[in-house]
Amino acid sequence: MKTYVAALALLAIAACNTAPATQGDYKTVLTFGPGEETKITEAFLSLKDSSSIELKEGRYRFDNLSLVQLKHIRIKGAGPEKTILDFSAQSQGGEGIRVAEVKGFVISGLALRDSKGDLLKINKSENVTITDVHTIWSKSDSTSGGYGIYPVLCSNVLVENCYAQGASDAGIYVGQSNKAVVRKCKAYKNVAGCEIENTTNAEVYDNEFYGNTAGFLVFDLPDLSQRGGHVKAYNNHIHDNNERNFAKAGSFGTSWGVGNAAPGSGVIIQATSDVELYNNRILNNNSSAIILVSGFFVDGKAGEKINANYFPVSKNIMIHDNTLEMGPAFPEPVYAHHTGKILVAIEQKLGARIPMIVYDGISTNVLTNQQLQNPDSICIRQAGQNLFVNVNALQMESKDWRPSTDMTAFNCQ
């Protein structure tokens, strides 16, 4: 009897760790090959619940594809090097594949290329699995779409074994969602490699984010549907993110957008809460390994935006046991970037190489008019030299401005 109970317990644990997408057979399986794009487009528009579309090896050319209000759906290719969906000749629509209000959605084994807008957008859906999907723009510049892999307003999301390149915002983005995992992915030559924005209960691990403007971002922005938090990022390799910021003007380059990410940023944490960053290798991001800032850093009026879904000061942040290394000098693109110039000014004021962890020093004291040492529970446990600077950003325009490298108040055991 004990053995039986133990076996049931193990099965229960295994069930909790399986992929979130609905599993099981599909009532309808439709198989297509290259040259059947018209049939494929019609199939997407007429698809019924519990259907699988399987695409053979080859290159397919589409304007766009759309799935709406369905259950138990799969799109399956022969592998991202074999099944390629090319959106470069779009004459209408901006997105490559758009999925909305689908419960139990799986997409795997495909490469999506060169749409005008986002390559794969999944909106208001549940139990989503994105695996072995590549999203690629041939050029990494402002003509690229904003997001490669883009689940938003979703629940139970798994993104694994994916690759994203060339996005003018984020290669892999999870926004305004609940319960998300990003693992074993790579992101290269995007503005942001991966971004978790206004999302709760997310884990990001075993990924490689490299060659971007900024490697990994955890953000909360105002005026969105929910507040984010409870994010863990661990066992990631975040390195050599030193490229120029090519975010679009307008929606992607506003005062709140990823256009603020300075070239050379490894990790940026902004205006969110309950984040744990640990056991990562954050290497050769040569403006900062980790930046921790409030919404006030990008908008002095951030306090006016406080509501149930937004609080501008980062709270309950734990940074520990990461491997941090930086090169001896800033990357060249930082000198032409507005936030980059601030980092250069900090280094000049210190008269020594900028430390690896940059904290803006703007706490809830600015809202409470108190003088507490660490009111927002910022916890740093890191070994090494030249680790930390408190920018004291509210004093930057004063002739008495002095950044501080004293991290005593933020040391934790």
Automatic annotation (TrEMBL):
Pfam families to which the protein is assigned, alphabetical: Beta_helix
UniProt keyword annotation of Transmembrane helix present: no
SUPFAM superfamilies (alphabetical): Pectin lyase-like
InterPro entries: Beta_helix (IPR039448), PbH1 (IPR006626), Pectin_lyas_fold (IPR012334), Pectin_lyase_fold/virulence (IPR011050), SO_2930-like_dom (IPR022442)
Statement: the UniProt record of this protein carries the keyword Signal: yes
Residue stretches making up the Right handed beta helix domain: 83-219
Keywords: Signal
Signal peptide: 1-21
Protein name: Right handed beta helix domain-containing protein
